[in-house]
Amino acid sequence: DREVHRGHIWRVVVGDFESPDGERFQRDIVRSPGAVAAVPLLFDAEGVPSVVLVRQYRAVFDEMVLEIPAGMRDVADEPLETTASRELIEEVGLRAGALEPLVTYYPSPGMADSVLHVFLATDLDPTDRDTHGPEEMHSEVIHLPLADAIAMIGTEILDSKTIIGLLLVERRLRTADTR
156-176, pLDDT tens digit by residue? Predict the structure, then answer.
């Protein structure tokens, strides 16, 4: 890697590679510490599932974006579950009694080495939010029935980690109901 830019969290490098057939080539790559996200899942007295999302300003798009709680792995050597727990408290004011891995995926493999770990957060207790930065300071916590959140995919919910997390939770609940 040849570093061409170092930012607050990410680095941009030019990397030299060799394809499976031996051809040499270069690519610009964003080097990232990765991120975690969590789908906070609650059930009402009748057993209807709901989720807690955060609507926060995203400068890249200059708009408010509806998302599951998430954050960068910006604390060296912090366990994934610890980062997810911290983000739940910061963004939506919930402490998870249980965090279960849902999926690990590559959000943008054509340009970044970022890996995103998505958890299911359950056994939730309210706590004071611990917001950091302008995105969280001006954010809004949204509590929705899971079915409503699923219906918002593609219109009001456009964020990939949120879409993936919601759909995996819906599938898990549907599969559990059919057993």
Answer: 999 999 999 999 999 999 998
Q: Does the annotation count 135 as an active-site position? A: yes
Q: Which residue's entry shows tokens 């408010």?
A: 64
| DSSP conformation class of 166 | H
Pairing of strands 2-6, 11-18: antiparallel
Active-site annotation holder among 78, 100, 135, 156: 135
- What count of other Cβ atoms lies within 10 Å of the Cβ of residue 157? 20
The model's pLDDT over 81-94, given as tens digits with 9 standing for 90+, comes to 999 999 999 999 99
Using an 8 Å Cβ cutoff, are 170 and 146 in contact? yes
DSSP classification of residue 157: B
Classify 53 as helix, strand or coil.
Answer: strand
pTM of the model: 0.91
Cβ contact 52:37 at 8 Å: no
Strands 35-43 vs 116-126: parallel, antiparallel or unpaired: parallel
